[in-house]
């Protein structure tokens, strides 16, 4: 099953859960009494949090797909050609070497969303999903703000200059984190 289909299935299942939970919460609220009403309100809060989390993840996935499609349209999508172990995971030495190459490119051009996208794929290949997501969020932010220095910059020269100082601090911090620690052991 593809990732997109799995996400849709999980969203449908979460939606069914949210409807069921909300109906139970309303039953508590309608029953009257202080404790059941408070319990019903607390139960209503959970579906709200679940819906909010689902929305954030869906938006992240759509933005990631949008950036990947833009790179693919330009023929610049990072190629996953790392040698694989029998389990399907990339070989450690190859992932480490790729990570080092990509990290150097990010440090050389920290305002290019394309480099951050590539860094996210390198982190993912190395098995560091947390840093992969952080790098992808940085790529999305750079792309959407128009402060990317790469060939595919979505913004104008004016918007690139206006986002400079705040974006530089974040890029330098993340690039520093990337250089301080390589892929997980």
Oligomer: single chain
Tell me roughly what share of residues is in helical segments: over 70%
Instruction: Please indicate the percent range of residues in DSSP E strands (runs of 2 or more).
Output: under 5%
Structural class: mainly alpha
Structure overview:
75% of the residues lie in helices and 0% in strands. It has seven helices and no strands. The chain has helices spanning 3-31, 34-73, 92-108, 113-125, 129-145, 157-162, 164-180. α3 runs antiparallel to α7.
Task: Describe the protein's topology.
Blueprint: H1 3-31, H2 34-73, H3 92-108, H4 113-125, H5 129-145, H6 157-162, H7 164-180
Question: Concise description?
Answer:
With 185 residues, the protein is an all-alpha fold. It has helices spanning 3-31, 34-73, 92-108, 113-125, 129-145, 157-162, 164-180.
Provide the descriptors you would attach to this structure in a database record:
185 residues; 75% helix; mainly alpha; single chain; disordered C terminus
């Amino acid at each position: 099953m593809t990732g997109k289909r799995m996400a849709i299935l999980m969203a449908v299942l979460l939606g069914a859960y949210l409807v069921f939970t909300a109906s139970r919460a309303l039953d508590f609220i309608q029953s009257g009494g202080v404790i059941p009403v408070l319990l019903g309100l607390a139960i209503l809060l959970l579906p709200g949090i679940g819906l909010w989390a689902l929305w954030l993840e869906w938006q992240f996935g759509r933005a990631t797909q949008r950036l990947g499609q833009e790179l693919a349209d330009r023929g610049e999508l990072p190629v996953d050609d790392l040698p694989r172990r029998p389990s399907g995971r990339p070989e450690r030495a190859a992932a480490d070497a790729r990570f080092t190459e990509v990290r150097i490119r990010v440090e050389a051009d920290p305002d290019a969303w394309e480099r951050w996208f590539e860094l996210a794929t390198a982190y993912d290949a190395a098995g560091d999903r947390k840093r992969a997501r952080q790098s992808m969020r940085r790529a999305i932010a750079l792309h959407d703000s128009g402060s990317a220095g790469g060939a595919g910059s979505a913004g104008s020269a004016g918007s690139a200059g206006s986002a400079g100082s705040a974006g530089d601090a974040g890029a330098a911090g993340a690039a520093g984190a990337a250089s301080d620690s390589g892929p997980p052991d």
